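Exercise 7. Predict the joint structure of the components listed below.
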Amino acid sequence: MDVLVAPRPILYHDRMKTDPSIASTGAVKRRCIADRSGCQRARPIPVGGDALEPERGSWRLDRRLWWCAIAFWFLLGCLSAAANPVATENVVASLVAERTQVAPGSSLELALVLRIRPGWHTYWRNPGDSGEPPRLTWILPDGVIAGPLRWPLPERIPVGPLANYGYSGQAIHPLTLEVPEDWPVGVPLPLRARADWLVCEEHCVPESAELALTLATAPSPGPADPEVAGILAVARAGLPEGRIDGAVLTATDRGLRLSIPWKAGQPSPAEVAWFAGAWGLIEHAAPQSWSWSGDRLEIALTPGSAAESAAPDGLLAVTGADGAVRSFEVAVRRADTALGTKTADQKAPIGLPLALAFALLGGLILNLMPCVFPILAMKAMSLVRGMAGEGADEGRERLRHGLAYTAGVLVFFGALAGLLLALRAGGAAIGWGFQLQYPPFVALMAYVFLTLGLSLSGAVTLGTRLMGLGGAQVGSGTAGAFGTGALAALVAAPCTAPFMGAALGYAVTLSWPLALAIMLTLGLGLALPFLLVSLLPGLARRMPKPGPWMESLKQFLAFPLYGAAAWLVWVLSVQTGPAGVAGVLAGMVLLAFALWLRELGGGRQPWVRRARLLVVVASLAGALALGLSTTRLAPVAANAVGDEAAGFATPYTADRLEAARAEGRPVFVNMTAAWCITCLVNERVALGTAAVTDAFRERNLLYLKGDWTNRDPAITDYLSGFGRNGVPLYVYYPSDGEPRVLPQILTPDLVLEALAGSP
Amino acid sequence: MRSFIRSAQSLSILALTVALAAGPAIAALRVGQPAPAFSVSDTSGKVWTLETLAGRPAILEWTNHDCPFVVKHYGAGNMQALQAEAKDAGYVWLSVVSSAPGKQGHVSPSEADDLTQRRSAVPTAVLLDSDGVMGRTYGAMTTPHMYVIDAGGTLAYMGGIDDRPTTNPADIQGATNHVRAAMTDLAAGQAVGTPLTRPYGCSVKY
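Solution:
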């Protein structure tokens, strides 16, 4: 077996002749003079010798002893130059195995152990501003595979204005070795590796050692070596505990902002440090400030020379209140480039005028949404009925109503924008439609739609002051008009119109006055048709004449509202499962009962009225409690959305996307939510059609679906990567090319064209 | 109120940054931007500034003769060959020593001249930046750390001398020399293909 024959050993004497760097390196040169002859580069020392104890004295062993050792090893060098452990000028290096007897077809843990001279240090995989990480070059028998070195949490070592990431005292780098199944049992397994490292105090010395380790082989693995088990336990304690996905790096004009998901259940950190995995991302020496906001850690970093191009992944070190340090590998995506492969036109967000135009258009379209239209139709009819006159009084009255209605819409949108921005500032991963991610909100909206529907059906009469709807009376007053406006805005929220996603995504990236301007423009769009009718008597005159048909229309319009309520119950079923549905349906029955009882009237005796009021209030309270209780129900597993339309979709994770991209597989990403009607329609009419699903299968395309029905920071991050803040979002990644964003309204042809457009 | 809190936050961050910048901060330079100004004496006492270059392209080399990574390139004659090539192509070559007094690599003017002669090096001048002002301005982190400034005074390259971050002279053969590649690109009138790499070596002994 040729692998057992050692290669020509690299001994220091040889290197002295050919390697001037070593001969003239300050530290090594001084040693050479001290030894007055060829100084050894690697000093093999006996296993178990006290050189493993990094005490100062062990560095000054009798030189004659070293001479003997050198002579011995020089002779032995013809057979093998390698030893284990090996002492160099500043380090005692060793290769240890968790057990000395290993079975073919199994793997075992090894570790490169560097015991470092006090005051000196070796380096992490990203060494920081200077330095180099240690490297192992293996000489292994065929079929034996050594995994990469693993890197325990380093320390940040300041060097003047610079900083390094490295280790002092000792550095233990575990790795996994795999023994092939066909290794003959009983034949020893020789492992040889050349270790190179740079060790620095203030000045640096490159050192190396040839390390050898021979393992016995047997049908079953031998017992673990207790000493090595201790070493490996120390190493494991320093290794990252796991991996955190969904971190986002954003370049701002004040520096880099790294936002890392941090589960609310975990204890809040007392101290946080970020170790950039690659050189150039950050200035290693710069101080890092961090804040802890709900379920995200936000770290402010100073950009380094290659902040735009360096890989953004790294290591997060978190010190708990008890002083215990934990570390995590963190997979980071850049916010300005989704997975680093975004096309140029997506990079430039839409401008402010365009965003305002989209917001206005989006607002106008909201008027046609099934949940808004009935309310507006009723309101418009109230104008027709009572205020179509030409007189100055009617004109003033109309104007007053129009303005009050507009104010109601704007106030609601302003409040919603404020809440959205406040939560954003607090670091919560939310987006447009976020309110629908909370089951109680969905439940209460279902109640609202049911009540409005009952009102339009004529089953109940709502106070005109409350809603301005019930009898659609003219005299409902300014407050009524204001209430209608707010109500229209409230019920419009679920119907995220196309164009709005982009405008709102842009809005949240702006300073808050501009963001507010966009939200208010959206509200203005919603209010505009009604405002125009009230401002222009000509328009009002052209509306159809009042008559009995209005009552029929009113009753008919109840049905879209019942539909909206039914749809919200379905959303709730996705969010909370059957328990939530049962709760909200029971709540609806209670609500209807309370409304009926209230409508019933009658009862002369005060106690009857009081009892009735009590039951009404109790029923309403019960309904409310049932609605609110949905918050306690555990969210149902993701990806329950639209499975019937496209059963072969895989739930979205950043890892899956990355892996498919890495292997050159085309990917279609669909970001959706149960409460997003546009999304569901697209899935039904485009993505779920046979033509599209067949095209997906033909291309071996990976169809990833992200369900944003409940809050999911990973999806919020993905959306923000494309400058969006809401669903739907459709992105097609060709097998080799830039990802393409598809429009928010899909047709089968549109999808097929996008697929065909790929090379 | 929100904006007030935010302004106060940004102000305090700004103040902190300024306070730290006054201390031992390192500049983050951008390739493609004008090279920052400097004013440092060479071994003969002549003061060099950006203006001294007068429209000639220049190469800055941070050095420390005792650093094993520097020794690799001087010992094998690699740095001297690159200096000669650059000079032939009309470059000004400035070797910069930013080691503080008492730190490794710090040299007096005569020691520096001696080293140049002994190593047959051919820089245009050796700048003695013992207070580290130029080093910090340029963000020099390692020795060697290389910078190429084009004839228009724009920073065209910064980073390592090549792509083999070792101290073994055998690795020079077959390595891609980023400085030479930058000179080739500039001579061809092209943008530098690899304008930024990780510098490797010992830390600059500020």
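Discussion. Chain B has six helices and nine strands.
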